[in-house]
Amino acid sequence: HGIVSNTMDDAALGKFSLSNRAAVEDRRWWDGAEPIWVTAQKAGISAATMFWPGSEAAVRGVRPAHWLAFDGKMPEPARVDRLLAWLDETPRPGLGTLYFDSVDHDGHEFGPDAPQTNAAIAAVDVQVGRLVTGLEARGIAANIVLVADHGMAPVSTDRQIMLDDLLPATSYRLVTGGAVAGIMSNPGQAAGVAPALLRRHAHMQCWRKSAIPRRLHYGRHPRVPDLVCVAAPGWMIWARAPKLAEGARAMALGGMHGYDPAAPDMAASFVAAGPAFRAGKVLAPFDNVDVHPLLLHLLGLPPMQTDGRLRPLRPGLRHR
Q1: Residue of 239, 269, 44 whose CA lies nearest to 146
Q2: What are the Cα distances from residue 129, in Å, to 68, 122, 195?
Q3: CA–CA separation, 6 vs 29, rounded Å?
Q4: What's CA 8's distance to the chain center, in Å?
């Protein structure tokens, strides 16, 4: 689909980051796949997307009927209220998305097991309850699918890999860092960069783009850098340690995601309820990409050729 990282380079489009408003709103970054709200709109189903990533661009020339530019300062109750207000419109949206970023934010800042993160989870739970109450008040028997896009592993400044300790700083460019590092050799430097990264490391494994394990489903898109390194859970990869003014304290992160998806800490949440679902059913673990065919099924839309499979979720459906 082309969204290979939060920070990307494209030979034709330049640089992408989530803080680059012009890039986020440029459909060319997103046009490699069709978001569910675009499929719904094309099928005549009105869609309302409350801060869902990608919904700020006219992907493949189509926008949801209702959307807002992301504003991280918008309180969570106001997000629920806006979605409910959209559901009062005519025609009533048949698909709504709602995005809360507070759990991710606090998980990064304080760590996955911190009191602040647990408080953020509880606060989101209250807003989901407000959403359910609002739906019931409107007589809407909705199917609700609650998902997380990733887990979170605890990290610290004591577990960091600095690429400048392995390579001359002038020999490479770090496109993206953190749990996963995307690295490009500078012109004429590939012969030195690749061997230094591809050798065995204690808390990091690197591959040429062409040799990334197939199970990771990564490396085929042109935006994926030539060399990709994945840190061991709890470790992070950066170019260099930050230079601090005298007396300054290093900015510490408490949590990070993006590690090998097989790592237990990367497991994400999934809860679904509504008339289409069997109550009390516990499903075996499945891939997040399987949520997409589920949504197509719930909307009564035909399957699409994607990496996702409906089969793992069929045991949770009333009519399989």
Answers
A1: 269
A2: 22, 11, 53
A3: 12
A4: 14
What is the tens place of the pLDDT at every residue in 18-73? 999 999 999 999 999 999 999 999 999 999 999 988 999 999 999 999 999 999 99
**φ/ψ (deg, to 5) at 67:** -165, 165
The pair of three-digit structure tokens given for residue 193, joined into one six-digit string: 């960069």
Spatial CA neighbour of 222 closest among 41, 75, 12, 64: 12
Distance set, CA 300 to CA 40, 43, 95, 285 (Å): 10, 10, 11, 24
How far is residue 279's CA from residue 73's CA, in Å, rounded to a whole number? 35
Tell whether omega for the bond before 91 is within 30 degrees of 0, i.e. cis: yes
The rounded distance, in Å, linking the Cα atoms of 124 and 37 is: 23
Token output for 298: 């719930």
Residue 232's alpha-carbon distances to 99, 179, 240, 266, in angstroms, are 29, 8, 18, 12
Inform me whether the pLDDT recorded for 140 exceeds 80.
Answer: yes
Number of Cβ within a 10 Å radius of residue 209: 16
pLDDT digits 0-9 by tens, 204-230: 999 999 999 999 999 999 999 999 999
Spatial contact of 258 and 177, defined as CB atoms under 8 Å apart: no
The tokens for 195 are 């061997």
pLDDT tens, 99-134?
Answer: 999 999 999 999 999 999 999 999 999 999 999 999
Across the chain, what does the average pLDDT equal?
95
Checking DSSP bridges between strand 66-67 and strand 47-50, what pairing results, if any? parallel
**Pairing of the two strands 7-10 and 14-17:** antiparallel
**From CA 258, how far away is CA 119, in angstroms rounded?**
23
Among the listed residues 151, 152, 156, the one whose alpha carbon sits nearest the alpha carbon of residue 235: 156
Whole-number pLDDT of residue 248: 46
H/E stretch holding 184 reads strand 180-185
CA distance 267 to 148: 9
β-bridge mates for residue 160, sequence order:
236
**What DSSP string describes 133-165?**
HHHHHTT----EEEE-S---EE--TTSEEEGGG
Element spanning 125, H or E = helix 115-137
